[in-house]
Amino acid sequence: MAEIIRMPKLSDTMVEGVVAEWHKKIGESVEEGELIAEIETDKATMEFESFFDGVLLHIGVEKGKAAPVNDILAIIGEKGEDIKALLEAEASGDNAKVEEKVEEKETRKPAPVSAPKIEAPKAASVKVMVEAPKMVAQPSYSDNGTDLKISPLAKNLANDKGLNLSQIKGTGEGGRIVKRDVDNFKGGNAASYVNREIYSEQPVSQMRKTIARRLGESKFTAPHFYLTISIDMDNAMEARNAINKSIAPSKVSFNDLVIKSAAASLKLHPAINASWQEDTIRYNEHVNVGVAVSVEDGLLVPVVRFADGKTLSQISNEVRVLAKKAKDKKLQPQEWEGNTFTISNLGMFGIEEFTAIINTPDSCILAIGGISQVPVVKKGKVVPGNIMKVTLSCDHRVVDGVAGSKYLQSFKNFMENPVLLLGAYNI
């Protein structure tokens, strides 16, 4: 009996998948548990194994093409088995026929039948150049002797090249601009951008589609408000240098200090470590911190689980591994699901301050800016200081202004006194 393999739902946000690679061809034998394809989801490229033994009779989604979850990915059955009835039933939407056993076999092997599918090609960038209408000479460019003297041939040639006539010096009689002046003009040929509209288009990746959908839902569903606080980073900088020079098993970054401080603060303020569930609000006792990582097609958020109970070195190692997996599209579902709070850090790009969109189902996200050297007042004197600004985006359905402010005060206290994070050299 032929078995239909459907496009699997490989992540909680996946609505369609792209076949990145087929490891089997039509007519080849397949064993249960054997790798048959690689499927690109909105977050990673994952290996897909067969659930059945048999022969690959049909491929429903060609390499590089997309298909919605539950569409026919492939059909596996006995060699020479007729699958025409299955494909016709699928095309007509007759689920009873799709599930019906196909027992009748033909003595000759039928030609493979491809399921009808129309997919936009995943093409390379397409560059389009649209010619603008030829510019009409402005009055200031007239050749009537009042403003600018130019021969008709030179004017048409300059117009075609998109040149600014006022920049061309005429060498003809009475300073008249002639063809040789246009040909010899060294001010640059602006035709490539002055006289044409140029743009390129690229297919939207699965990841970018999901980012657009989820962040749109978050921004327009959850009422955001924002709280910003400044943090004195002098002690954090000294602590990090001391840790990395001596007792740390691995190098610690400022982002590691941020994650640890954010996690420790969540234990003190469970109202922030929460999510909106329509009829209820879920308050999480566990602390799973999502860390936004920039990748080629957009953004992924791998999760540091139980971050409050991990040392700075453990957090450092885990984030490094997760970030590499994210960039290589090797993250597994358990590594990007289950976040209770999210951190987005753009400080390394010189961004001083920004607001982030909440990563649902979290109720808050913390946006981290860079460390800036600015004058500060200490003990009545103006001295050089190192200040970092952070902004907490809050879902007002779950978190009120006072709760968010108290959380930021605790976060500020941990960052300005990092010894509180170390314990007895628990780094």
Q: Could you characterize the architecture of this molecule?
A:
- About 25% of the residues lie in helices and about 25% in strands.
- Strands 11-20-19-18-14-17 form a 6-stranded mixed β-sheet. A 4-stranded antiparallel β-sheet has the order 1-8-6-3, with no helix packed on it. A 4-stranded antiparallel β-sheet has the order 5-4-2-7, with no helix packed on it.
- It has 3 domains: about 5-100, RNA polymerase II/Efflux pump adaptor protein, barrel-sandwich hybrid domain (OB fold (Dihydrolipoamide Acetyltransferase, E2P), Beta Barrel); about 130-200, E3-binding domain (Dihydrolipoamide Transferase, Irregular); about 205-420, Chloramphenicol acetyltransferase-like domain (Chloramphenicol Acetyltransferase), CATH 3.30.559.10.
- It contains 12 helices and 20 strands.
- It has about 425 residues and is α+β, with helices and mostly antiparallel strands.
Question: How does the SSE layout of this entry go?
Answer:
Layout: E1 3-6, E2 16-22, E3 29-30, E4 35-40, E5 45-49, E6 54-59, E7 66-68, E8 72-77, H1 84-92, H2 95-99, E9 126-131, H3 152-161, H4 179-183, H5 191-194, E10 196-201, H6 206-221, E11 224-232, H7 234-245, H8 254-268, E12 274-276, E13 281-283, E14 289-291, E15 293-295, E16 298-300, E17 303-304, H9 312-327, H10 333-336, E18 341-345, E19 364-378, E20 381-395, H11 401-416, H12 419-422
Parallel strand pairs: 14-18, 18-19
Antiparallel strand pairs: 1-8, 2-4, 2-7, 3-6, 4-5, 6-8, 9-10, 11-20, 12-13, 14-17, 15-16, 19-20
